[in-house]
Design brief:
Elements (H helix, E strand, L loop, with lengths): L6 E12 L2 E12 L3 E5 L6 H8 L7 E6 L2 E2 L4 H7 E4 L11 H11 L5 H11 L4 H4 L8 H13 L5 E5 L7 H16 L3 E5 L3 H4 L4 E6 L2 E6 L1 H8 L1 E7 L3 H8 L7 E5 L2 E7 L2 H8 L7 E5 L3 H10 L7
Parallel strand pairs: 3-8, 3-9, 6-7, 7-8
Antiparallel strand pairs: 1-2, 1-4, 4-5, 9-10, 11-13, 11-14, 12-13
Helix pairs in contact: 3-4
Length: 310
């Protein structure tokens, strides 16, 4: 991280508990201006709770810090006015048109030159005039997503907080959405975005991984893979399911995961892992070493963390 670059998000020991359950546990997170910061982790790990604390919708149980230079404990109103928040579920009015939804949001923010702002938002996201007259409830998932992003950016925020914005959206719509995020980043807008898609994670400048309330890593994709110390083999052949069961009995093998018609077998680099793998490197199976991917690393993280609600 560049110490000369201003921090848009800077929080320390951020914690949230509901009754006796700690769902976010002493998280430290720093995000620089213009950065696309990925926020990953299994469902129920505290990603949404963290994002809601950052944008002022939830009060932390403990911890402190700033968002856009505003104190997250005492200046939540200023954060709400200057950040854009996009929720997991579509949260605009389905019985209003695209134009009407955006006009309503512009009114909430008390924007000057409201009609021009709505027009520019529609054009920026590639929404045609005819489609902008449609009811939001009649839009496809991809177009609803564009509308939600237009609503989150109509007031020209310096920070976007996006909570799994592309869940359930087709690959083309996801790619177009991320092209918009990259463009905003080039213009100096900072983004914290949670996602389960590894191709999206690879487009982020840095990645934070949270598992059941605990931050495990926060680094570039390259460094996350490097510091996992995982070595990975790809295995093809017949009856891989039977092989998978045998491999999973080996303590030195950290994970066995199906990737299409092949298996990925991973473990911590060293003699123990090599010895465990060599037992099974026989015909009819074909083994080849492959670069460890982000998906290999994050499956490993998920399988080695305990659910705090279990």
């Amino acid at each position: 991280m560049n110490n000369s670059t201003p921090l848009v998000i800077d929080v320390k020991n951020l914690t949230k508990a509901f009754d006796d359950k700690v769902v976010v546990n002493k998280i430290n997170l720093q995000v620089e201006k213009g950065e696309i910061h990925g926020f990953l982790g299994p469902n129920g790990s505290g990603k949404t709770t963290t994002i809601r604390m950052l944008c002022g919708l939830l009060t932390p149980t403990s911890g402190d810090g700033t968002c856009l230079g505003y104190d997250i404990l005492t200046q939540s109103r200023q954060i709400k006015l200057n950040a854009g928040y996009m929720t997991q579920a579509f949260s605009l009015y389905e019985d209003l048109s695209v134009y009407e939804n955006l006009d309503f949001v512009a009114r909430l923010y008390q924007l000057d030159n409201r009609k021009q702002r709505v027009k520019e938002s529609v054009e920026r996201l590639g929404i045609s005039k005819d489609r902008a007259k449609q009811l939001a409830g009649n839009l496809s998932g991809g177009w609803k997503q564009r509308l939600a992003l237009a609503a989150a950016t109509i007031h020209e925020p310096k920070l976007l907080l996006l909570d799994e914005p592309t869940a359930g959206v087709d690959p083309l719509a996801r790619r177009e959405f991320w092209d918009h995020i990259s463009l905003l980043s080039s213009e100096g807008v900072t983004t914290l975005v949670s996602t389960h898609y590894m191709d999206e994670a690879e487009r982020c400048h840095r990645l934070a991984y949270i598992a059941y309330g605990n931050m495990l890593v926060d680094n570039t994709a390259k460094e996350v893979i490097k510091h996992s110390h995982l070595e990975t083999f790809q295995v093809s052949g017949h009856n891989l399911q039977a092989l998978s069961k045998k491999l999973q009995t080996e303590k030195a093998i950290a994970q066995v995961a199906a990737f299409g018609l092949v298996l990925h077998v991973s473990g911590i680099k060293g003699q123990s892992f090599e010895k465990a793998v060599n037992k099974y490197r026989v015909k009819p199976y074909r083994w080849s070493q492959v670069p460890t991917s982000l998906e290999d690393v994050f499956i490993y993280f998920m399988e080695n963390q305990k659910d705090n609600f279990a």
